[in-house]
């Protein structure tokens, strides 16, 4: 199991009420990744944490870290705060597409395997606010153009129900998948964030299989929440069995990408928090590797629900 982290969570974070921890440079965040037992991979935000490809590559090499992904942020800059890829203003859409293309150029230059994009500002707060017909058409156009550019660097879309909009356009995995099918580019995938999937009342393991069976690729973000908000908690702390089941199916499909931690330490010590997350994630991965998957799947074929839940009790919960 390869584990990485979105390095933004190693610096200062904030919500509507509080600020947590202190601001750090990209180099300081990367130094911190080195100190976290269990992590050797990095997801870095473009363009806010990146510098030139040469400088970034030098830091990554010096600290012997590996690329999980480049995360292109199409919501932070002032012109994107109210949305980017779905907006009726052509210039804003073009700037957002150019930003994703720039992230792909950067990913290629530094050797990162994929670009992931979570268009959180594209959506609406109130009803009768947005022309849904136009918004969908623009997203097919903009994301399609970005997906077709530099096809050797695949573009992954990360859906989420809400925040920063009350209702994001790509509000669940199926909707993002529908958009990918509409675009028709094979150089795309879904970033399956466990917490986002749970927030959308999905089962992450089932959505993993659905994306794969639809012919698209999957990249996993790990965390947990209470299904009411995207709290970015330590993995398995609320939905333990969901985490086990997702890793079971990731193993069945031969998932080889990084498991990237998208969790926020908030009031916890940063290194301790991520080591606990790495520990439970690896523990679950090791547990999954002890399970006789062929037996589980045979019992599923036979619809032997009682024996399956008995195995879950004895082999997973171990009670
Ligand atoms: Mn995520």
Mean pLDDT: 98
Which class best fits the helix and strand makeup? alpha/beta
Number of domains: 1
Number of separate helices: 11
CATH topology: TIM Barrel
Q: For the CA atoms, what is the radius of gyration?
A: 19 Å
Looking at CATH, the homologous superfamily is Divalent-metal-dependent TIM barrel enzymes
Element-level helix/strand string: EEEHEHEHEEHEEHEHHEHEHHH
- In the CATH hierarchy, the architecture is Alpha-Beta Barrel
As residue ranges, the low-confidence spans are none
CATH class: Alpha Beta
The largest β sheet comes out as: 8 strands, parallel, barrel
- Unique ligands: manganese (II) ion
Helical fraction: 40-55%
Structural description of this entry:
This protein has one domain: TIM Barrel (Alpha-Beta Barrel), CATH 3.20.20. Strand 4, helix 2 (53-62) and strand 5 form a beta-alpha-beta unit. The protein has 11 helices and 12 strands. It starts with a strand and ends with a helix. The longest helix has 21 residues, at 90-110. The protein is globular and about 60 Å long. With 319 residues, it is α/β, with parallel strands linked by helices.
């Amino acid at each position: 199991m390869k584990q990485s982290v979105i390095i933004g969570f190693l610096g200062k974070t904030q919500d509507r009420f509080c600020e947590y921890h202190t601001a750090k440079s990209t180099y300081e965040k990367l130094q911190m990744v080195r100190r976290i037992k269990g992590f050797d991979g990095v997801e870095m935000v473009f363009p806010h944490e990146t510098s030139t490809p040469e400088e970034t590559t030098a830091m990554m090499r010096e600290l012997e870290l590996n690329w999980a992904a480049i995360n292109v942020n199409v919501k932070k800059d002032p012109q994107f705060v109210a949305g980017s890829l779905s907006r009726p203003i052509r210039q804003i859409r073009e700037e957002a597409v150019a930003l994703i293309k720039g992230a792909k150029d950067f990913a290629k230059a530094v050797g990162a395997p994929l670009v992931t994009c979570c268009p959180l500002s594209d959506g609406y707060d109130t009803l009768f606010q947005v022309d849904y017909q136009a918004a969908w058409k623009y997203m097919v156009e903009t994301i399609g153009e970005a997906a077709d550019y530099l096809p050797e660097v695949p573009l992954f879309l990360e859906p989420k129900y809400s925040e920063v909009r009350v209702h994001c356009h790509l509000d669940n995995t199926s909707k993002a998948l529908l958009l990918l099918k509409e675009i028709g580019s094979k150089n795309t995938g879904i970033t399956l964030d466990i917490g986002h999937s749970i927030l959308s009342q999905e089962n992450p393991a089932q959505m993993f299989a659905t994306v794969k069976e639809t012919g698209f690729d999957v990249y996993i973000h790990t965390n947990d929440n209470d299904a009411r908000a995207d709290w970015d908690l330590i993995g398995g702390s609320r939905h333990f069995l969901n985490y086990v089941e997702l890793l079971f199916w990731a193993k069945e499909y031969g998932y080889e990408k990084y498991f990237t931690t998208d969790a926020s330490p908030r009031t916890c010590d940063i290194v301790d928090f991520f080591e606990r997350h790495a520990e439970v994630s690896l523990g679950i991965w090791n547990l999954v590797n002890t399970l006789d998957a062929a037996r589980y799947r045979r019992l599923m074929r036979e619809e032997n629900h009682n024996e399956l839940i008995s195995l879950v009790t004895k082999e997973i919960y171990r009670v």
